[in-house]
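Changelog-linked ticket: NAP example.
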Amino acid sequence: MNVLITGVSSGLGKEVLSLRNRSFAVYGVSRNPLTPHVFSYDSIDTLPNPEVLILNAAIGDQGVDFRAFDADGFKEIMDVNLMQPLTYFSTLYRSGKLTNLKQLLIIGSRFSSLPYIQSQEASALPGYGYCISKASLALFVQVLRKESFPFSVNLVHPGVMNTVMGSPEGIHAGDMAQKLQSKILDDSFLHEFNGIYALPTDEIIPF
Ligand SMILES: NC(=O)c1ccc[n+]([C@@H]2O[C@H](COP(=O)([O-])OP(=O)(O)OC[C@H]3O[C@@H](n4cnc5c(N)ncnc54)[C@H](OP(=O)(O)O)[C@@H]3O)[C@@H](O)[C@H]2O)c1
């Protein structure tokens, strides 16, 4: 199975790439394609046609305080977390690279969920940019599904991981990479879940 994942120089993406083997042929897409099997975003022609595409690359945010709203920072996070994955997906599609695609997985967050955001105090929120970009991905998934593509589309919350974006007390990103691999290989994500798939618990968080 050919798997293509964006953002592989650290965190979850790096761990998924490290699981590469004969039956799980992972290729990475990175701003810094320094290792074998990792491509730059603009080297579309040489990419293998993936059966699974994982849009993973993202940046974090600093907490909500609208009195200190930083328009440039907001634009950047909307660009990296929302515009870039949509644009890359569309580029691959138009280039004929997604003819084998069976599973589109977008790495969202529990903050992709409006009910989850509503249930939190402001102090527990990661920032306007992160909440709005990740919640927009939930809307994107629901609109994209209306087009009835021949592949499934799912949004996945990988849990709070022990990455730079996450927390030192978080779950080991390697464990979540293995869980993601097992769910891909057993075809769990051929089903389109009516919410955000929480990888650590297998729960569905409402959109
Ligand atoms: N960590 C958590 O606790 C947590 C919780 C919920 C959801 N998530 C989600 O899980 C995914 C992976 O998170 P992670 O913790 O593994 O993150 P991470 O370690 O920060 O890695 C994210 C990757 O995104 C790419 N990236 C960083 N800045 C970028 C930029 N300006 N433009 C384009 N790409 C950029 C990098 O890949 P390259 O250098 O290879 O381009 C980087 O390796 C993200 O979508 C995140 O929102 C994480």
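Closing comment: Example verified and attached. The first strand starts at residue 2 and ends at 6. The beta strands are 2-6, 25-29, 38-39, 52-55, 103-107, 152-157, 196-198, 203-205.
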